[in-house]
Amino acid sequence: MGRLNRLQAVLAALLFVVPSVGAECISTIRTVSQPVVFPSHAAGPVAWTGSVLGVAKVDIDTNVVYFATYDANMNQLLADRIVSNASLGGPLALLWNGSEFALFYQRDDLQLVFQRISLSGDAIGTAIAVAPKHLQWQNQEYDIAWDARRQAYDVIHTIPAGFERAIWLTIVGRDGEVKLDQPLSIYMAITAEPRVAVAPSGEIGVTWIREDFNGAALYFLLFGTDNNIKELTEISVNGRDTRLAASDDSFLIVSTVRLPGNTSELRSARVDLTGKVIAADATLVRARGVDIAPLELIWNPTLREWALTYNESINGFDLFPGEMRLLRLEILGAQSDTLFTPDPTKNIYQMRFPFVWTGASYSGSIERPGVPRNQGSDTYLVKHCPLIAEVTAPTHTAIYGLTQFTGSASGGTPDYAFHWDFGDTGLGEGRNPKHQYLRTGTYTVTLTATDSAGGLSVSTATVLVVIPKQRAVRH
Known about the structure:
By secondary structure, this protein is an all-beta fold. It is 1% helix and 54% strand.
């Protein structure tokens, strides 16, 4: 945080942008609500259609739920429209199913419902109750995902008391038809932290804190495409604050573990689509101070990477809200760890709802913690352009010659630094290095670009080094 102090003193605009190389993507932060400004419509969950960002909001005074749309640059397209005149604390999730939005929230009577919303922002019918045959209880926990294979919403939820006490999976169609409603396990902690993610092929992953006669532990359950439980695996004894996401071949599980000495760390594990653990629970990020906790986790199919927002507080969350960061994880292990917001004065803000990948940026809502309810809210929409590096290199080059390489970068936070590995133990620095190869062969050239906020991007190219053909001498 100290490296940002000078910037924090001057960067206090309501709209702050960071230009990228070539202007392919510009990181942006847009004000949605401010303290002591009423009505206070606080930004909540977001969903991306491919061209439009849907945003759910809640009026802090009345719990009335609103819906609006924005373009990719965070310009509002559709004015706030009322979705529900009453809710229990505002929206829980906003999902796009390919043709319409679904906005999930609890009514005042605790019933979970969702409202269908068209791309134009119009409500489709009335709110639909999810599994209304169950009794409703205080302190129920929910997580919801769109299931493209089943064309339905997968709702993982707890029933914390009564004869139905269990972790439940309810699969409900876009029209409200209940396709499946069954308990997964009766063993759960008082705070179970259920999470659900769906692979494109239809396998459903579920994590929760399970508690039985052996104690409490973090478990992963695989629910197959045939709607049967396939695997149940203990992931961690101490993992908490779990986040879960699915790619096309595996599930990634991230959790927090307390360590001796009043500190903590993020841990991760991967499970394939058969339920087999392919990367056991291990340290992902060790806290530099007291507290660290995951916020949201998604899979990015375009960049083939996992993206995790997390919060870290050197002195502990009880004393300081911490700093929100974005960790990008590639399957092969390359990492980038940087601030999520382009405005360093907002780095203590928090993310309560999943963010999305728009094809060019990571976008989501953030809020300042600790704003008294009678003062409204302080929320923003953020467009984060990830750092992307590119290599320009010849496909063939001559041995002993000077080969020209060019590196470029976009997104992230300028200025950029370029570090080269030419594949033959040779190293280089700068945007336009030259290198001499002393042996023929095929070499993989690796460019690692870093930005001023800690972002990192790796790009490679293949170069064939050959002996040039000799021209025939004419006599």
